[in-house]
Design a protein that fits this description.
2 domains, 4 helices, 227 residues, six-stranded mixed β-barrel, Ribosomal Protein L25, Chain P, alpha+beta, elongated, RNA Polymerase Alpha Subunit, Chain A, domain 2
């Protein structure tokens, strides 16, 4: 069953969004094939319930399609980016992207490691998780919530799990090379350096664009005296 969120168009910008958060709402922006009320700016400011958003975020992450109800219409969206308060950890802003069901998406899906590695249990080795998520391409209907990695195949200290060893769902294609390492075993006491999660430059660019447009719109409203 698809997760659902309800949102409303937002008119509060800049310093005024503080009142939204105090009322238990999260300011957000929608991108993609927008409703008519979005105009020509390419983004639509919205607000939604903080408790409802937290619940859906925990279940969906940023790789599961959500049904967003907005203005009496429903749109299939992905949570593209979430800003959180550094002290409370609560979401303070979110970006949503409206997807087209006939257009493939490229997203990062979490890897979930399952099972017991005999190399760890029987030979005292250490499991090294080189990747924590996998960049994939798929149609929205085929996007998995996560991808399982069975580590029971790691039987000796020399064994590795490669991208090509993963069992990807039908319609899902990895964006990484087939021989890239997902997990490996090292001997106990050996220094382990796990690969850092790569920075998603496209997400940063989209976030920057959205924030700049929102700030510009807020300044424009302030200059005109609009409430």
């Amino acid at each position: 069953m698809m997760l659902k969120l309800t949102a409303k168009p937002r008119t509060a910008f800049g310093k005024k969004v503080k009142s939204l958060r105090q009322a238990g709402l999260v300011p957000a922006i929608v991108y993609g094939s927008l409703p008519a009320q979005a105009g020509q700016k390419g983004t639509l400011p919205i607000s939604l319930s903080l408790p409802e958003f937290k619940k859906v975020l925990n279940q969906a992450g940023e790789s599961t399609i959500i049904s967003l109800e907005l203005g009496g219409e429903r749109h299939d969206v992905l949570i593209h980016d979430v800003q959180t308060d550094p002290l409370s950890g609560l979401p303070i802003h979110a970006d949503f992207y409206i997807v087209s069901q006939d257009k493939e998406l490229e997203v990062a899906v979490p890897l979930v490691f399952e099972g017991v590695a005999p190399a760890v249990k029987d030979f005292g080795g250490s499991l090294v998780k080189v990747l924590h998520e996998l960049e994939i391409r798929a149609l929205p209907k085929n996007l998995p919530h996560d991808i399982k990695v069975d580590i029971s195949s790691l039987k000796t200290l020399d064994d590795q799990i490669l991208i090509k060893d993963l069992k990807l769902p039908a319609g899902v294609e990895s964006r990484l090379e087939a021989d890239e390492v997902v997990a490996a075993i090292t001997e106990a006491g050996e220094e382990v350096i796990e690969e850092a999660v790569p920075v998603d430059l496209s997400a940063i660019e989209v976030e920057k664009k959205g924030k700049q447009e929102e700030e510009a719109e807020g300044e424009e409203k302030s200059e005109t005296g609009e409430k």
